[in-house]
Specification:
- It is a single chain.
- With 109 residues, the protein is of the alpha+beta class.
- It has a single domain, classed as Response regulator (Rossmann fold, 3-Layer(aba) Sandwich), CATH 3.40.50.2300.
- The protein is built from 4 helices and 2 strands, in the order βαβααα.
- β1, α1 and β2 form a beta-alpha-beta unit.
- The longest helix is centred in the first third of the chain and has 15 residues.
Amino acid sequence: MLLINDLFYITGNICRSPIAEAVFQNEVKKRGLQDQWKVESAAIIGYHTGKKPDIRARDTLTENGIADYSHTARKVRFCIFKNKHKNFIITTFYYYCNSNYSLGFLCSE
């Protein structure tokens, strides 16, 4: 069976992307499709790596009936983007390409 991978990514991975991951995982679970989907979230910049989602994100999930979600922020560590996506991210976040933050995942492996 084909496994569909879905990655929600944003700058820090402690608020919006974990909410998206949790909601999507919840919908997949409701439909009994866990064996067909792999749902994750990650950051493009690792300054929140290892942290739990922001309390506001956790509260929002709980208020909407999603209480069994566990997450630790992580940075994307593998090359997953097509060239057009790489170019968009590099153009949008050009500052971080030459700073203490690494966009090394944009390289080819």
